Structure formats: C-alpha cells, structure tokens
Amino acid sequence: MANKQFDVIVIGAGPGGYIAAIRAAQLGMNVACIDEWKSAQGGPAPGGTCTNVGCIPSKALLQSSEHFEHANKHFAEHGITAKDVKIDVATMIGRKDAVVKQNNDGILYLFKKNKVTFFHGRGSFVKAVDGGYEIKAGDETLVGRQVVVATGSNARALPGVPFDEENVLSNDGALRIGAVPKKLGLIGSGVIGLEMGSVWRRLGAEVTVLEGLPTFLGAVDEQIAKEAKKAFDKQGLKIELGVKVGEIKSGKKGVSVAYTNAKGEAQALEVDKLIVSIGRVPNTTGLNAEAVGLKLDERGAIVVDDDCRTSLKGVWAVGDVVRGPMLAHKAEEEGVAVAERIAGQHGHVDFNLVPWVIYTSPEIAWVGRTEQQLKEQGVKYKAGTFPFLANGRARALGDTTGMVKFLADAATDEILGVHIVGPMASELIAEACVAMAFRASSEDIARICHAHPSLSESTKEAALAVDKRTLNF
Ligand code: FAD
Ligand code: NAI
Questions:
Q1: What is the maximum alpha-carbon separation in the chain?
Q2: Global confidence as pTM
Q3: For helices 89-113 and 55-69, what crossing angle results, to 10°?
Q4: C-beta 364 within 6 A of ligand 2
Q5: CATH, residue 458
C-alpha cells in the first residue's frame, strides 16, 4: 500500500506540536500529528508534558491546596467557621486527573475540527525521500513534505539517582503522591520546586527545599525575589540555599539526603518523599534523528536558528526540544510561527517578550528585563513600585503581599520590564506584555483608565511611581 502523504507531519502533540498542527491545518495544509503519550487506560493523551504532568495538573493541585489553606487559615477572618477541615488526597488527585482528561479530549476534538490526522504512537525518522521525509508513526509509514519536531523535554535526574516515582519523584510522581507526606524534600528551588513545595506544604507536609545556588530565584528581579522569599519563609517553606547535595539513599522508610550547607557543614535530611526538580533535558529519544543527520547540540537539544529551522531543509523544531525558555506559551508561539513560515507567511516570535509566571502564593510574574540586567547592560532606567498593601481590592481580598514594579528607560520612558509579586500576578502581567509589544511608555499606562477597585490599579500606580507621582501611596 502506498505511504500516506502529508504536507506537514508534526511529531509530538504538546503545546508546541498540537498548536503547530492546528495552525498549519487552518492555513489549508494536509497535516498529521503523531504523539505517543498514553493515558492510564492506554489510550491517546495528547497535550504533552504541559497537559499530562506539567502546567495543567500542577495548577489543579495548586488550586485544591489553596482552597484547603484558605479554609483552615483564612475563613475565620471572614467570620466563617470551618471545623475539621480535611483533605482527601485521592479525591484531589482524581479531580486533577479529570481536569487533565478534559484537556486531552479537548485536543482530540480540536484535531477533528481542524481535520488534523492524529496517530497514536511513536514518530521517528526513516529516511529522506524525494520531496520530503519518510516518517514512521507507530506501525504506519507516512511521508511528509515538511516535518515539525516538537518532542519536548524530560525531568533531569541527579547522577546515579534514577527516579523510581515512589520515593524519588520527578514532576510525574510529584503530581500523584497518594497521601500527604509528613516530611517532603525537594532538590532545586526553581519553578517546580516552589510550586510543588507549596502544594504539599499547604496540605500539611513539612517541606525542605535544597538549592545549589547561593541566590534565590537568580533569574527574577532581585527586589521581587527578596519579597517572595520573605513570604515563603513566613509560610514555613524551608529553603536552604548554597547547598551541595551528596549521597542519596532511598529505602522502605523513605529517603535520606546527605548534603553540605552554605557554611560547608555536613548535614542530613530524612524525608518520606524526595522531589528532584533540577531542570529538564530536551527529549529526542526514539526520534531516530541520526537516520537523517539532524543536528543536536551538546545538551541534546535540536539545533535551530531564530526561525526554528533545523540543520535539515524542510525540518523544523519547536518548544522544549530547542533553545530558549521551557515554557508552554513559548512552544505555542513557535508552533504558530513555524506553520505560518511553512505557508510562506512571516511568522514572528518576540523572545524578549515571553512572560514568566510562578504560580505560588504570592504569584510571581515578569516580562522584559530585570533591574540587575539593566545595570549589567549599562542601561539608564527609572524604577517605580507600588505595594498591594495600598490597593483597595487587595485589602478586600485579604491578600496584600507584594508589589508591582516598573522599569522604564530614563530618556524615552519606554517600558523595559515589569515585575510582579502578589495576588493574580499571572493575570496582571498580560497588560505589561501588551504594553511592551506596542512599545508603550510608563506614562501611557499611567494615563489609561483602570477599573476600580481592581488589582490592575496597582499596575497603573506603579507606572505613575516611575514619575514619582503615585496617588494612593
Ligand atoms: P511537551 O509538552 O513535552 O510535549 C512533547 C510531546 O511529544 C509529548 O506528548 C511526548 O509524548 C511526545 N513525543 C516525544 N517524542 C515522541 C516521538 N518520538 N513520537 C511521538 N511522540 C513523541 N510551562 C508554562 O508555560 N506554564 C506552566 O505553568 C508550566 N508548568 C509546568 C509544571 C511542571 C510540573 C512541568 C514539568 C512543566 C511545566 N511547564 C509550564 C513547562 C511546559 O510543560 C513545557 O514548556 C511545555 O510542555 C513544552 O511543550 P512542548 O510541546 O515543547 O513539549
Ligand atoms: P528550574 O530550572 O526552574 O530550577 C532548577 C533549580 O535547581 C535551579 O534553581 C538550580 O540552581 C537548581 N539545581 C540544579 N542542580 C542542582 C543540584 N544538583 N542541587 C541543588 N540544586 C540544583 O527547573 P525545574 O524547577 O525543574 O523546572 C523545569 C522547567 O519547567 C522550568 O525551568 C520551567 O521552564 C518549566 N516550568 C515552568 C513552570 C511555570 O511556568 N509556572 C512551572 C514548572 C516548570
């Protein structure tokens, strides 16, 4: 039987891949998307790390655990009595699984709606053929004129300490712990360390995070990171910086971690479970990249140019498997841009305007450059901050931690960075992204009417603060 022919074959249906497939189909191309992720029942589960063991399930657990903490610690302030508040972890995990499934099903529906042909199984290169590439999709063989690789990333393990997902957990196991551990350890106080640490601390675990670097959240604006650290310390999230992790032993009673602290003193941490969250590695396992000579770098990432073109004509790569931040929205933007480039359009991603959000409480969000980066780069800037403590809506919410911070060019007033730590930072940052995409000045934001009472008034006030004329502080 003749091989099935497609204009575009996308390998991987995470946010990079499934979005690329949909956009290519919207542009009139005949598209296949191959993904091997299996649900617990063995069926297809498109959506990749993000949907199955990343963004979506982590936010579901963050929500559940936040409700629990509110009921236990904050309802009383509102005059609400909630006695004997308990957490049924199985129900919480079941809800999280249901949220994941809704997203898996949503993507299958979108494939149908957009006439993307979905193949459940492993996708791998066979060989280059006249006018494209032969690609294996499970048991079938396809030919694609263009190929988009979106195979994502996997959790990085500590050398010699493989994940068993029972005691030593990656993000996968961390999202399906069956009961609240008495003591939980995390290696790495990055994004996963803080989000997962927050979930289980709120549910009652004693959480210790061991971080190798001497600074907390080094990529975050220092003032914002300091404010966040203060809040985490107050919550009882124990974060030890500047440690050197040594031997890790896992047994029936749990996990013991030997380490030296920042002073060089030998320490031991005994925990019931250990989450290792020390970054992720690009995934090209099973892709058979060598069959076609697809070039990888020393980290195993697929080498691409700014437009996501690989070393092979007609092969593109997007998302976590290439350079740049490992974020779902960055993967999506690249997926759209690649589909548009294949269609002969001018797809575009502004890598300087990719926002970051850490979904802790308080949330941390930023876009653009930090104050320390501007200093390093010798850029003359003005800074303005506004605390949520002075915002009426934040007071009404009972969540006044943190601030909004604006950094603007000293001469032109163009916004160079916006940094937020506080309630709903994940939503508030969108205004900054829009403003910066239009190259707005801080005065532009300061002159816009913001609804009252709203947290977004803090954004306007921080913009006013750049010119030292806040109205409510
Ligand atoms: P992936 O989502 O990893 O998808 C790759 C897909 O390709 C997978 O389904 C995989 O099975 C499939 N695949 C791989 N090889 C093959 C093959 N040979 N054949 C067929 N299929 C294959 N980012 C955010 O922006 N916001 C967040 O809140 C956020 N939270 C996160 C929380 C956690 C715990 C983790 C781990 C990550 C989080 N991320 C978050 C990061 C985000 O999940 C990734 O940046 C994003 O999923 C990358 O998308 P991708 O399409 O490149 O790859
Ligand atoms: P990370 O890169 O955010 O943090 C890893 C941390 O581990 C760093 O602080 C690093 O210094 C530390 N570390 C590395 N090796 C160590 C060692 N041997 N001992 C002690 N500390 C060590 O990586 P993380 O948290 O694993 O997350 C991976 C990626 O997933 C993130 O970078 C992000 O791209 C994505 N993600 C995004 C989220 C979001 O957008 N809200 C949520 C979760 C993950």
A1: 74
A2: 0.98
A3: 140
A4: no
A5: 3.30.390.30
